Amino acid sequence: MTQRDPVEAHFTEAVWNLAPPARQPLRTRNGDSGSAAVPADAGPEETHGPAIGDFREAGDSGDAGDFGDAGDFGDAGDAGDAGDAGDAGDAGDAPVRAGSALTQKRCLELFDVQLASRHLDLAARWLRHEGAGFYTIGSAGHEGNAGVAAALRLDDPALLHYRSGAFYLVRAGQADPPHDGARDVLLGLVAAVAEPIAGGRHKVFGNHALGVIPQTSTIASHLPRAVGLALAIGRAAKLGVPRPWPDDSLVVCSFGDASVNHSTAAGALNTASYCAHEGLPLPLLLVCEDNGLGISVRTPSGWVRAICSTRPGIAYFHADGVDLAQTYDTALAAARWVRERRAPAILHLSVVRLYGHAGSDVEQSYRRPGEIAADVALDPLTGTAKLLVAADVLTPEQVLVRYEAKRAQIMAAARDVVGSPRLSSAAQVMAPLAPRQPDKVAASAGVAEAATRRRVFGGRVPENEGPLTLAQSINRALTDGMAAWPAMLIFGQDVARKGGVYGITRGLHAKFGAGRVFDTLLDEQSILGLALGAGLNGLLPVPEIQYLAYLHNALDQLRGEAATLPFFSQGKYRNPMVIRVAGYAYQQGFGGHFHNDNALGALRDIPGLVIASPARPDDAAAMLRSCLAAADVDGSVCAYLEPIALYQTRDLHTKGDGGWLASYPPADWHVPLGSARTYGAGTDLTIVTFANGLRMSLRAAARMRADGIGCRVVDLRWIAPLPVADVLREAAATGRVLVADETRHTGGVSEGVITALVDAGFAGRIARVASEDSFVPLGDAAETVLLSEALIELAARALVK
Question: Is 541 helix (H, G, I), strand (E, B) or coil?
Fold first, then answer.
């Protein structure tokens, strides 16, 4: 072995010390014999092994050497062909250890995968050293997860932790014909366009053909999606809608021990327990790869076991990740438990972290040499080599020759990807963000056939109801959507029997049943996670977030999960959804800031997110059709913001005039994304606004018209994509623009509108009025910080002077 680093040096020494036939039992970290097998029918309580904290005491076991610099480990030297020395002996179907379900042949195959995963990590550092690679977080020490992958099926969807490299390689090998997973990883490391899932946008484990859904989370924010996907497998089967995974599949989701402390993980685990408590099918296998460290912060001894083994309704399994046979047998038992019972389980896999957190991490700055050396002594490659040598499958010499041959193979592949074409333009990078097929969306934005509509509406379709309020129109549009899309689900807090806190979903539970309209637990992260998973499994989720202020609790599920999935999968995976959110203010001081939130800044900068903001009843129905169609056709993630204060508004100018009511739009009418609506044809001033601002601006314009000032009022309708072309056209018609923005002065919608005007070279006069940079207080004090009709009118008159 050439130019070895300390990890490799220890591996070499440990392998040479395996005196053939080396039948001494594999030692676990508690010092117990590893020969005890996990029974094939074992349950969770029978598989509890030592938790990571039980053997984490580092003691003073000596200096591990200089682990910070692996040296020039990228050159395999003249390894050439391994020849007979690397060939296995009689590796057949006999168990690699008495009582284990892992055969000698399969163990050898998995060992080759573990070697490939290790050398991919080393190649990543060589590529970085050569200026050709961009990612060095590796899987060294976690290679035991190969045994988990081997216990699962190719059609079990997987959401993988960034240290699950060996898992990914095993999954690639399960394909027919086998897929070259190592090349996928290398292409990801060099940000190559040819990388099959992210196309150079990030280094992820993902492949559509392999059922591996790419994840970029480092804080377990993919766990809510995993719970949602597991729930959706049974739900989609019950509804009989087309779905990508078989009905008996399970969802596997891996994550690190530090992430288990994150609120997102805690919420997801709570939701899994909640579903189990309610008896809902949830075939979810959560794999905690526990190396005892979150970068430099130690996980307390026994902590992962303590919080994972006591979850109501979630079975707990433990395996030593150094012992591949134990890991495989335990994973088989856990997978069988989940698959047969359709119930969640946690597999706690004790592993070690080798080579630090990443290439730039100098772990000697926060770990004692003895502690590092103790982890090196628990190298899973050594553990698997012991199994194979003890079973007379390989000799120590054959193990080492095999190691070098794999190094040569991986390094040759690494050199081959150097110089691979990368993304070279913004257009290339952004291509997956917001695919728009307006013609297909228009064709899909209709309603169900007439007989179905008559049935769901009780014989009276909404077009024949007469003028409707905003609330009524949204309710009818949701009913139409449920009739038109059998895969559509409506869920959230209080949406079922109660019909929503404002009655928007009233009657839908009775019409479409609890399988499609259901209440959830009170956790916005989990509500959106259910939507993320449902969208992956062929469903069309329409979650409700009760108030805009509550959405902020879960924004990472939109920003870091929903919006990024098509981006990092080149559209191969989608999570379509339409999130209904009651929001904005103007409720006559009622409710305080949680019920009167006017902050959209955190939504406006999420790439690809569609933001609809209807004000008028007829627009509301047509825009909801557009959102549903865009989600169905383009996989769009849409936030549909409903102005609470306009839900029951009936009048526009005077009491009893019914000016805010509107008839339900015709069945073939929808509102294209990014299109505004103009009221009036005045030539003195253009007022650009949206939501509550539309009603206030129309009232102000009417008063100004009486004084001979002609205004046209533009309702944006869409906050994203912003209807820039429509705004420019109406601005040019008057040469003066006032933006009336009910969101905050800083980070508000008006910033985007004015910037668009300036960027386009608009030379006329521009002004804006907006709400103050303040939370909305209770009572009459709210009027002091919110945009008002009086402010709009005052600014408008000043602009036309």
Answer: strand
In degrees rounded to 5, what are phi and psi of residue 792? -60, -50
Alpha carbons 564 and 608: distance in angstroms, whole number:
9
Tokens of 36: 């005890």
CA dihedral 473, 581, 489, 616 (to 10 degrees): 20
Alpha-carbon torsion 61, 63, 67, 72, what sign?
Answer: negative
Structure tokens at 537: 């499994």
- ∠ at Cα 708 (702, 710), nearest 5°? 60
- What is the identity of the amino acid at 555? L
In the prediction, which pLDDT does 159 show? 97
**CB environment 180-192: b (16+ within 10 A), e (fewer):** bbbbbbbbbbbbb
d(CA 612, CA 749): 13
What the block records as the tokens of 188 is 């990801």
- pLDDT tens for residues 197-250? 999 999 999 999 999 999 987 788 999 999 999 999 999 999 999 999 999 999
Tell me how far apart the terminal alpha carbons of the chain are, to the nearest angstrom.
85
C-alpha gyration radius of the chain: 30
In our burial notation (b when 16+ CB lie closer than 10 A, e otherwise), range 110-120 reads bbbbbbbbbbb
* Tokens encoding 237: 């089967």
Start-end of H helices in 557-616: 564-569, 601-604
**Percent over 70 (pLDDT), the chain:** 90
